[in-house]
Structures are given as structure tokens and as C-alpha cells.
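Sanity check

After download, print the first record. It should look like this:
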Amino acid sequence: MIKKILFGAFCMTQFSFAYAAEKPAVNMNTIMASGDIQPFQKIPKTVIIKTKKFKIRIDKQPNGKYLYQSWAVNAKITSKPSMIISDGELIPDGSGGNYYFNFVNEGYNYQVWRNYLTDSATKAPYTLTVNDETDHEVVRQDGFVVKQ
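Expected C-alpha cells:
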């Protein structure tokens, strides 16, 4: 009886070794060449953020670029956006997971930062900054996720 149990256990281990798949190691120190963030981070294809004055929707386009749409904070997101900026880029910021979306429109630089690592536990998950042609910051507003 014991021989049968040992033989069964032996067979089970052999089958499990035969069907085991080796998982590739993830290199945490490199950013992938395609401009994507490290593989352990998930970038949403669509995110809707609400700041003090705006609702912002960012969508990943089929060409890999990003689309920025914004409305007044009290407007419905189903209405026509007050601003649309295409061809935005995702830019990694360090190795801790932070990144930002960068959009350029008529000399103004719109950046929507994703704040994973911060110095405060109460920091908002997103921050909108807008800089003018002289790189002077004209808008800085924290944003919270409405839909992801």
C-alpha cells in the first residue's frame, strides 16, 4: 500500500515538472524601448480625471499616441469637449512608477502627471500642469480619478 502511495506521489511530481512553464525574470531597472513604462506597471487605455476647474479624458490611440480632451468641471462629458489635443506622449519619470502624459497646443505644454511615489500620503493621484511658451507655469491642479 505504501509503495502505491509513493509511486503515485512520484508520478504526480514528474507530471508537474513536465508541464511547468518557466516565467521570464522581469528586469526592474530598464525601460522598454517602445517608450512604455516598465512591464510591472499598468497604464490605463482611458482615464478620466476631475480637477478643481476641469474634467480631463486621456485615451490611448491606435497609433500609440494619446488624445487629451477637456471640459469645464460642471459640463457633461458626453457634450463636445472645450479642448482636444492629439499626438500626446507618455513619458516615464524615474524608476518608481511615476509618469506623465505630455501634450503641446499652440505653444502651451499640458502635462498630466501620475503620482505613484510622493512625499505625502494625501497627495492626489494625478496633477495637471500647464506651462506657457516661456515655460512659466500658468495652471497647477490636483486631479482625482472619475473613471479608469
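If your output differs, re-run the checksum step. Summary of this record's structure: The first strand starts at residue 46 and ends at 50.
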